[in-house]
Write a structure and sequence with these properties.
The structure is a single chain. With 151 residues, this protein is mainly beta. The protein has a single domain, classed as Glucose Permease (Domain IIA), CATH 2.70.70.10. The strands form two sheets. Strands 1, 3, 4, 5, 7, 9 and 10 form a seven-stranded antiparallel sheet that branches. A hairpin with a 4-residue loop joins strand 4 and strand 5. The longest helix is centred in the C-terminal third of the chain and has 8 residues. 35% of the residues are buried. It comes from marine metagenome. GO terms for molecular function: metalloendopeptidase activity. This is M23ase beta-sheet core domain-containing protein. Pfam families: Peptidase_M23.
Length: 151
Amino acid sequence: MVPEELKIPVKNATENDWNQNTFWHEKWGKSVVHKGIYIFAKEGTPVLSSTDGIVIYKGKFGMGGNVIFILGAKWKIYYYAHLAKDNVSFGKFVKASQTIGLVGTSGNAKEPQLHFGIMTLVPHIWRFDNSTQGWKKMFYINPIQKLLNQA
């Protein structure tokens, strides 16, 4: 098994820089519920890879604007959105804490922030519930819980 360690994906950020209530917050526009967290920082602050992995997508992606998807250990995909710019290449390996982009306001962001999400390709069926889009909880992991477990 490959170990899974997570780093906070914004340089010098602490848990005081993210909104504790954004994960699975309802009435979140077109996406209905919010499937990640916002980490607030000044525009241009380095965005760091939260884990070792392979860049499987970089480019524009709907409301996320400029985004990066990284495939990490245990078949998890790490999603970084609202970037001002990226500095990674598709298919390349990145290390945890490596700078992969800069905090920005692309997509539907109204202020500088990183939308950080974690998805699993292996469904966690025990997470299914009757909340709005509760079946999707099998595939989306609360980043706050994962980040705090590493602190």
